[in-house]
Amino acid sequence: MDKQEFEGEYYEKNEPQDTATHSTQPKKGWQTGKSLLVGLLGGVIGAGLLLGGMKYYQNKTEQPVTVPKITMKDQKNGQTKVSDLKVNVDTQATKAFEKIKGAVVSVEAYKTSVKADQRIDDLFSNSNIKPPVSGSSGSGVIYKKVGSVAYVVTNNHVIAGADKYAIILADGKKIPAQVVGKDAVTDLAVLKVESKDIKTIASFGDSNNIKVGETALAIGSPLGSNYATSLTQGIISAKKRTLDVTNSKGVSTGQATVIQTDAAINPGNSGGPLINLAGQVIGINSMKLTSTGAQGTSVEGMGFAIPSNEVVSIINQLVAHGKVQRPALGVMIVNLSYINKEYQTNKLHLPAKVTSGVVITEINPKSPLKKTKIKANDVIVKLDDKKITDVLSLREALYEHQVGDKITISYYHHKQLKTAQVTLSLEG
């Protein structure tokens, strides 16, 4: 049906109109249409605003980025410089290192392969001849300078098996060296060199005075002379640690009492000094524990150094005699703690109060004890005024003496405590 709009309202065409009874209220169809019209208008307006906003945002985001033009003045203003503020970073560690670093050297040892009728000196003096050479390297420390000669301590295993030696100073100068003496038991060796280029000498501190927890510095040439005078820092982890020691052939050479530290000690550090914060040598770095147990458990931070007090005793003997002359009792011994209680009572006839000492299991034919009444199965409990609790304590007490010294041994024989005077003989 055709419709006709009139001032916002609509009526069906030709429909009779009663003006008297006409109402201004639109009909139901008009209400529905009006709602529809308003809805459509709102949708159109809303859509327009949305599309317009999106277009505006799109135009804004798609605007090209303008890169500012950089002038030479701008570039100059963008430069910087190192601060001239001087910071004092000196510590006891740096002072200790500076004090001793000139005395720390790299040690090189070579094994040359030559024909029987050729001397090593001849081969090295002839530049046209290059014999096969194998070698090892480690560290060392210069501890004495007398006239034209300077002395260097290092580890025996660094030079073992070699026939030509040299040291490299901190400034890189290489100097030929000679062996003065070496000792496989303590793993120490002494070299001598010409002293004209030696300017710094190390001093030894008292290793008995060190404390667990105090700072320790290790200096040496880990992985060779390319890393010479490398410094690592740690603490003293233990003052006296007992370790079983073997030589380069895997043969046991007894036990060693060493300083334990967590300062990094790597291959090549062997023979270098472990120092305190006064710059004194308190030990010679000797070994590092890298694994333990049947499963090969990885271990970190367990390095060991020969105590300086023992080092001084050994190197003085090496300089004097070329070897260590150790006093010996000429006996086979075992810790009393390894013997069961029944055997201690029935065979050794020990009083119950005796709980430590060393048991003599065999006396060698040339033993100085042959001149005393000491017998096998007797238990040594004291050497002079030193209490003997185990094999290690006996060794330490014995090595405080020289060959030819007279000592008093206190021992138990059939429940009775007795003493004997013994003159110490040379080991072996």
Q: How many DSSP E strands?
A: 24
Radius of gyration: 45 Å
CATH structural fold name of the largest domain: Thrombin, subunit H
Top-tier CATH class of the largest domain? Mainly Beta
Label the CATH architecture of the largest domain.
Beta Barrel
Look at the structure and give the mean pLDDT: 81
Low-confidence runs: 1-52
SS strand fraction = 35-45%
Distance between the termini: 139 Å
- Strand order across the largest sheet: 3-4-5-8-7-6
Morphology call: elongated
Explain this structure to me?
The chain has 428 residues and is α+β, with helices and mostly antiparallel strands. It has 3 domains: 104-194, Thrombin, subunit H; 207-321, Trypsin-like serine proteases (Thrombin, subunit H, Beta Barrel), CATH 2.40.10.10; 327-426, Pdz3 Domain (Roll). It is 20% helix and 35% strand. The protein is built from 8 helices and 24 strands. The protein has helices at 28-61, 72-77, 92-100, 120-125, 156-159, 308-321, 341-346, 391-398; strands at residues 3-6, 9-12, 104-112, 133-146, 149-154, 164-168, 174-183, 188-194, 215-220, 230-246, 252-261, 273-275, 281-288, 291-292, 297-298, 303-307, 327-328, 331-335, 358-363, 379-383, 386-387, 406-413, 416-423, 425-426. The strands form 6 sheets. It has a 6-stranded antiparallel beta barrel with strand order 3-4-5-8-7-6. Strands 9-10-11-16-13-12 form a 6-stranded antiparallel β-barrel. The longest helix has 34 residues, at 28-61. Mean pLDDT is 81; it is low at 1-52.
